[in-house]
Design a protein that fits this description.
The complex is a heterotrimer of chains A (405), B (247) and C (200). Chain A is mostly helical and 405 residues long. Chain A has helices at 2-5, 14-41, 56-71, 73-79, 84-87, 90-110, 118-123, 130-153, 161-184, 197-223, 230-260, 265-274, 277-299, 311-336, 363-386, 397-404, and one strand spanning 345-349. Chain A starts with a helix and ends with a helix. Chain C is elongated, with a radius of gyration of 35 Å. The longest helix of chain C has 24 residues, at 64-87. The chains are: A mainly alpha (405), B alpha+beta (247), C mainly alpha (200).
Amino acid sequence: MAHEVCVNQGGGRTVEFFALLGLGGVLILGALFAFFTLEHHGHVLTGMNNQIVWGLPHVVAVFLIVSASGALNVASIGSVFGKDVYKKRAPLSGMLALALLSGGLGVLVLDLGRPDRLIVAMTHYNFHSIFAWNMIFYNGFFAIVGLYLVTLMERKLKYWSRPVGFLAFFWRLGLTTATGSIFGFIVARAGYNSALMAPMFIIMSFAYGLAIFMVVQASMYSWNDLTLDLTIRRRMKKLLAVFVGASLYFTVVFHLTNLYFAKQWDYEQFILLDGGIFTVLFWVGQVFIGAVLPLSLLFINRSQGEHLVSFSVLAPLFVVVGGLCQMYVTIVGGQAYPLTLFPGHEVRSSFYDGVVHAYHPGIYEWLLGLGGIGIAFTLTVVAVRVFKFLPQDDFKPVLMRRSTD
Amino acid sequence: MSDSMNSKLEDRRDFLKAGGLVAGVTLAPGLLFYGVAQSRAPEEGASSRQRWGMLIDTTKCGDGCSDCVTACNTENGLSGKTGPQDSQWIRKVDVKDLRTGYVQSLPMMCQHCDNPPCVDVCPTGASMKRADGIVLVDRHACIGCRYCMMACPYKARSFVHEPMHDQKPDVPRGKGCVESCTFCVQRVDKGEQPACVEACDAKGHKAMLFGDLKDPQSAIFKALKSTDSVEVRADLALDTGVRYQGI
Amino acid sequence: MNAPENLATLGSPPEHPQGAGRVRNAAEAATATLGTKKHLGRPGVLLQRMNGMARVANLPDLGKWFRIVACLGAMAFTAIPSMQVVAGVDLPKLEHGKGDKCVDDVAFIRRHHPDLLKHHRDETVRLGIRTTKYSLKKCVECHAGSKTGSVASSKEDFCVACHRYAGAKLDCWDCHATKPGKQAAVPDAKPVLPLHGGSK
């Protein structure tokens, strides 16, 4: 089997490969440094406090976890909905999903107050807790997607790739529902507490995952001096546009609903108008960079010929940046807005009741967050180098058009 | 059946308690409130026949007085610092009505809900409710994920950001775990009052009343029966053990 | 890698004349990379081109005996620290606790104190059972060192001395007090009204 799945792609560029590996390694080392420092001195060194309990590491972690399930979507379109172009990309999509999830979970674990007790988290489950369910979903995701990858890459097991692909598809829907519900189930905070969180996270995961997939795929083709077929690029661009548009739609509905509830007005005013960094990140980051800009790029009709910048790489990159902004606004913004203890009253105390909480991420939070990206990056670089993950489109373009439209 | 036996036993206990109360009043009026919290044998665990609760009369709570906070810090070994990363188990909150401008002051801490969101969300079950209604963090199982802090509507919980030393023997506290008001469980199990209540009484405000919400003879039961009281964020239907009157 | 150039490559449609020289799609590319136009599933060709993985199996000929000796040597090396333990070197000298004897047979406590403490802690925290026989607080009250007044402040202190020797890490003292409380010598204050909640 080894010779079928292990191919040293782009074998010549050893120096560049190790340079990339080094880059990822440095990011991971940074996160480990932060981890051991925090383990020794405590979270007092971070910008997180009793008001903003989840900070930058969680923003990156949740983004990576959500993207992981979204990256698997490419495989699902192939296995579950039978689209041939996507079937060829299923192994890469599965591998990316695993790498991204590893990165996200890595950050979450490294940020725990008592990471030494991870074994407790893995052996004691409180089934009332959506967080505990998430742990089950994450562990199961590794097992199922791992199995799925085996069925995709081993010819003898090819027959199983469809049922396992189905299982992986439903599992990832469950996973993102659970991830969204981490916030959706928080009854007390104005920024969360919405059934819309789960479906919104699912549709956002589609967009973020596909965007990361497109960037990685483009890098791989370019690394091997290949050109991805224009038709395939166009198809994926259209799909990304649909997902980004749908995410924008959910964002609009979410805020419209809040605007309709009088009790939510203050929170909406905070996010949409006078929330400082959160308002900026919402309008500029989430809405403009994350949705409007990529949508316009994706729909522009470009002239024939070579272009300096490929929009099928640029647009997904914007989506990723917008996604990180969205997570920051959702996670940190939701906590920065104070809890309402007494509606219609103004509260003041030594424990920062009634004031907007400030959050200044410190160096250790940055190191942890970048480390999560580093883990996902390194795993991807190694996997792509060692295994045969480059999509193998061995069909005629004409046939392809018919099979994908 | 056993029910009737239980009720007989309870009746007898209530009778004894009432007798004790009278004795307490006559013999040691200044220490009466010790008797309200009922002690039990050490080998006997917390029982669901009891539910500890508190009634806070905001009209009696002194504006600018923070003796309850100081007492809590002393009893539980908190530093008393009020930086954004410091633990505060109880705090004084000034509440101002936005239309009328009327200002009140009240103590806010863990409300010891019957349906505590922190217990619901805790992935490992470290956040827990004892049989007698006291909500605690089992630090041996807490992994420091801080989801309970996200979930608590009262902002009652703190995360220990720094390594600790010189803790109180009865109140273990350590870096990386979440903590909150315990109703001074170490005192309640000995039949004493929480430190904040004791301090409030000592100051003469008597704004905090602690006792067994299920015991018809308890002062808190009677007070709740004769006065209107509210839960903070009653809309969440958490059935809090701490109730307020006067707001 | 040179990003703009590569992006330009991606941007160019395959129909474009300039792109014609380049490889069209992935299947062709993979074969091209391997230096053969033949089908991928040809193990012979592939193995020749694979670097790294295959070679691991062909390490320079280490003799069988050399390997056995190397393994034994490594085992012996790792065993050196525990030799001292077996020989009873540097046994910790523990200070005698207060009172005549421990709450139970010393050998029993020595072997089972982790389980006893763990069981007791769960009963106390979760069920509110406050017996004192196996409580950590009581251990501290008897075994706090005379110099430091603590069970875990210096290397000689009761808990640390033994746990250092056994190489078993402790995290009790992250949270628990290592010194007895000031009122420890005084018996717990009796409630003014000695009423019990249960049958006692």
